[in-house]
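Notes to self after the Tuesday call (sharing in case useful).
The group wants a holo model before anyone commits to mutagenesis around the pocket. I volunteered. Ligand is magnesium ion. Logging inputs and output together so the record is complete.
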Amino acid sequence: MSIIVQKFGGTSVASAEKIRNAARRAVAAHQNGHQVVVVVSARGKKTDELIGLAAEITERPSPREMDVLLSTGEQETIALMSMAIHALGEKAISLTGPQIGIVTDEASTKARIRQIDTSRLHSYLEAGNIVVAAGFQGMDQHGNITTLGRGGSDTTATALAAVLSASLCEIYTDVEGVFTTDPRIVPDARQVPKISYDEMLELASLGAGVMHSRSIEFAKKYRVPLRVRPSFNDGAGTLIAMEPEDPAPVVTGVALVKDELRVSLRGVPDRPGVMSLIFTKMAARKIPLDLVVQDIADSGIAEISFTVPRADFADALTAAGEAVEELGEGTVHHGTQLAKVSIVGSGMQTHSGVAAQLFQTIADAGINVLMISTGDIKISALIEADHAIDAVKAIHKSFALDQVKNITPPLGSTLPGAATEAIQVDEKRERQVVLQLANMEDIVVSDVIVDTNQARVTILNLADEPGIAAGLFTLVARGGVMIDMIVQNVSQQGRTNITFTVPRGDLQKCLELVRGAIDLSDGVTLNWDEEIAKVSVAGIGLRSHTGVGQKMFHALAENDINILLVGTSEMRMTAVIRRDQAEKAEKALTAMFLNAVATT
Ligand code: ASP
Ligand code: MG
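Result:
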């Protein structure tokens, strides 16, 4: 008999009537022959209310007592839900997190799940019960109640689905499903029927609100199909699974973070260990970095910039200050009122011209791109926050995301299978790593990938105005050259540098195209390097786990390897280094991340 997990969020259980509706869905699934586990959140705004109450009592509530308090929200719902199922004539039993046997670490208010004992769940299910489980909570090894962080019920649901090998985990919510972008920004945003774990992870991590990236990580690790569905009608919602839609859309969605902050370290030495130091400082404060950009160094001096969420800004500045002090060189700068717009899509791996079209669209809207960073299936641009909404609208329109088959970039061409190889992680090894995890939420790094077939091209001192990146990448795409990593750091005195990598075999052609696209006078210079290698670690949820970058850059620094460029995504952390150090880097990263994994 197959097991289905159904999760109902706060708005879907806000009133008695809504609880009854949810109960009807659970009963229907049970009557269709499934074993059913229902996971519920606290009703409506309950959690916020409880947090408010605590704040009225004290400014500094003890985290342990916070967890005791907040867990009552979900406990209320499980009892009511169970009663509602009884009233429909079915057997049901409510269980709190500790009663289920969800064991977490001791990090009150942001605990991570270690293990889940399924014996109790199975015996109740086999006795014909619908099990109603409290989301968002567990118990540490000393028996204290813990909670998993805001929005944690999704995590509970996917984790239970994983350990029970459920055939499906349904997430009932107050939206129709996953959309190409936020429909409040773009009214004709389209609901997508299917999306891959990787696309959803990137979108969630880059600002899309539908689901917490942590639960998608779980789903991917344990290959749990997720369906995000509306609770207010019978819509089919969106399936989140291993494969993207077929054919894979070039662009699946546009994500926006309206309130990003930039931290830059200027004038830092260009030598091994610098990136490691920065990532270590940030990881110590659990600050996830995004849009990490390191400029190609000029006369031994590098500039490193990254963006952080607002909540982490003060901490990030302190950490950056410490780093500069330890280096004995450099200054810390920052930028505010910035927004990050990103496009995500599996199909961009096999299409050229996507970046060109993105930058052209942003330029046509009169918007300047301040920073650029790319991953296998995403491109992010930092712009001024005032232009954020206009940018999202223009990008959505330009890629025709409101239509079922979105447009392939007019400039581009399809490269059958070309770049897809690069991203193909070893599935078998990933399974092994997951099965060997000591704790369910431990980081999964399953591959070290070395690419020695790229060359770097940098254009220095470009005038920083709308359309620069667009013009450049349009011509290169037209020439049929597939660009891989693109990096642009913030401008200084109105000048900016753009760096990208291309297949080494295309370098000469690319240089010609660049010379045709850019006026190489007035201080604008072109340089390139054929002797580079791209090393990456691949896994699941790498950016959100702050420790991965730290470990990776530490391993490289210890081996005296200098980092030329950096790229981060949920699937990969990438560093461009000197080619003659590629072997050493591969060894170091393998030792750091993979040696524990028995390779059969
Ligand atoms: N009730 C918790 C919250 O509001 C957990 C959840 O809803 O997922 O954050
Ligand atoms: Mg909630």
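Two things stood out.
Residues 119 and 596 are 29 Å apart (CA to CA).
Residues 416-423 have pLDDT under 50 and may be disordered.
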